[in-house]
Amino acid sequence: SKQAIIAPSVLAADFANLQRDIEMINTSQADWFHIDIMDGVFVPNISFGMPVLEAINKHAKKTIDVHLMIVDPDRYIKTFKALGSDILTVHYEACTHLHRTLQAIKAEGMKAGVALNPHTNVSLLEDVINDIDLVCLMSVNPGFGGQSFIENTYKKIRQLKEIITRNGASTLIEIDGGVTDKNAKQLTEAGADVLVAGSFVFRAEDPIATIADLKKITTL
Ligand code: DX5
Ligand code: ZN
User: Fold this and answer.
1) Is 5-217 a CATH 3.20.20.70 domain?
2) 3-state secondary structure 186-208
């Protein structure tokens, strides 16, 4: 049976109790830590940067999935490797030489991801799909947690799955933004492999039970 990989987004954690929230994820059935890095240029918000990721990495005992919402990400590939990133995702819209960027990420020993904004068609990845370990489909406009899910994402998952299958690629499909217990099953059924969840997990009364619930409802 298949079960979604659950990646809580640390953006929604309580930064004054960050170690507590990291230990919560360690203890839970969550699979990955999703780390949102925003530069205030590519997206209209600034999240947190290197010193905070360094602190997270000291305590995190699971895969660290870094989502760079920054312009010219090539400048920081080596830095994010040094900070403990296992998967490094760059935005399609921020990379003029995407193929080169993917090779540079993999040369550092990380998995390479590409994120697409809601308006960016998945067909643009056709010629590079075999070089991508993970495609992050943004199901909200990047920049903020707590926004509502864009329904067009289901269609994009199905179209992307078809491209992956046709090219014999093993690329994972990650969904980022507005994931809840209301859409998690349908997303997994459509072909999603990884679900990022920020506010739904951290605003819950019992985050550990909420993560367990997401694992359970995404078991196909
Ligand atoms: C949005 C970030 C998301 C965000 C998800 O720019 O990339 O990872 O933290 O938060 P929720 O689950 O609250 O939509
Ligand atoms: Zn993200």
Assistant:
1) yes
2) HHHHHCCCEEEECHHHHCCCCHH
ipTM, interface predicted TM-score of the complex: 0.99
Our mutation pick for probing the ligand 1 site, out of 176, 180, 199, 214, counting the most ligand atoms within 8 A of Cβ, is 176
Alpha-carbon gap, residue 104 to 87, rounded angstroms: 13
CA 163 to chain centre: 20
Domain ranges of the chain: 5-217
For the question of whether the overall pTM of this predicted structure is more than 0.95, the answer is yes
Profile the chain (220 residues) by mean pLDDT over runs of 10 residues. 95 98 98 99 98 98 98 98 98 98 98 99 98 99 98 98 98 98 98 98 98 98
3-class secondary structure, 179: coil
